[in-house]
Amino acid sequence: MLELYDGPVPVEEILVRWYREEAGSNYGAFIPFIGTIRDEEGISGLSFDIYEPILESWFDAWQQRAKEAGAILKMAHSKGDVPLHTSSYVAAVFSPKRKVALKMINDFVEDFKASAPIWKYDLKEGKRVYARDRSTPISGSGLLGEEA
Fold this sequence. Notes:
The chain has three helices and seven strands; from the N terminus they run E-H-E-E-H-E-E-H-E-E. The chain has 148 residues and is α+β, with helices and mostly antiparallel strands. Strands 1, 2, 3, 4, 5, 6 and 7 form a seven-stranded mixed beta sheet that branches. A hairpin with a 2-residue loop joins strand 6 (118-124) and strand 7. The protein starts with a strand and ends in an 18-residue tail after the last strand.
């Protein structure tokens, strides 16, 4: 399950809904990850652009990995502007065993940072400024992939 939101993700609503959706599924572990916009470098928030077809394909591959491990993977992410101290990213793994869920959420979040087609901008003085120094090159994308 992949959900995209304009602006901040509604963390409490998502986590409660996901928990309720899986309450009868006999999973022993529900491991969420919540990404929150920090106050750093004078920003007023972050802004995100997403290439949805590639994100959906990337996420589908992860859902297959989760299924093979007997788990379920869910993710929500923001599009557009997200102010400080709100969330832009929520992910969760449901699994019969905690070790599977803990490993999968860690691997998923790390791969998300390295591979998801989401571009981050700082919001400074009313402008979107590409956050190049805090972005990760995506293999084969051309963007950030080569030295200038």
